[in-house]
Amino acid sequence: MVGRELRWTPGYRIIRTIYPPVDLFEDIADPADWELLVSAEAKLNPRIRDEVGNLALVPADRRIFGPTASIAMGAFTHVSADRPSRFSDGSYGVWYCGDRVEVALAETAYHFQRFMRATDEPPAAADFRLLTCPVGGAVEVAPEDCLAPQDWAPGQRLGRQMRGDGLDGILYRSVRYPEGDALAMFWPDCLTLPITQNQQFRYRWDGARMTHYLPHGATAWAPWPIAGVAG
After folding, report:
1. What's the whole-model pTM score?
2. How far apart are CA 79 and CA 54, in angstroms?
3. Taken in order 195, 178, 149, 203, is the CA torsion positive or negative?
4. Where are the domains of the chain?
5. With contact defined as beta carbons under 8 Å apart, do 76 and 58 qualify?
6. Half-sphere exposure of 214 toward its Cβ, with a 13 Å CA cutoff?
7. Where are the beta strands (DSSP E) in 75-230?
8. How far apart are CA 12 and CA 181, in angstroms?
9. What pLDDT, on a 0 to 100 scale, did the predictor assign at position 29?
10. Structural contact between residues 217 and 158, judged by C-beta atoms closer than 8 angstroms
11. Which parts of the chain have pLDDT scores under 70?
């Protein structure tokens, strides 16, 4: 399957700030040798496999290396069935990004609130950072039945099919910010390094819902949701 060529310069993604870099992905080394390097390093540092994740999920010819590569590779090597998403059942990674900051804000705020409710968290705040980089590849447009607010099953079936057919990703209308679009990319080499780490945000949770967000440098919390955000 060929798909439609699409490129955003840049795509906007927001992630938690808790993930450390992995030096292996930053070093200049042949990605085909990474399994051997991890095996060797793990003998001295047993935690290295946990830090690197499952390299087998990314074919050697689709891996990327160099400055900020750890941010990109981590999205594809650290996966879990406990963390499914709209276009993955958790058995493979996806780089989700938006065509504007508001899409990234709305999508991550929804998932932050969903997680905090599911784990019955007390009032708290969490830090996030905005990432930008060029992103693109051969994509298909998701049909409307994959965009139900709560039902991910159709999207997961589509994601599995498109990834298996060799497509790079899926373009879709943002479910949480319908005025914008989002991309779900299946492979690290759909991203162009370096990834720029931009503004930081803090999300506030009151024990029942996300109520505010604070852009780094701002003097006052902004109420949530922003205009255009869907439930």
Report:
1. 0.86
2. 8
3. positive
4. 4-223
5. yes
6. 13
7. 95-98, 124-141, 169-173, 181-185, 196-205, 210-215, 222-223
8. 11
9. 59
10. no
11. 1-2, 18-52
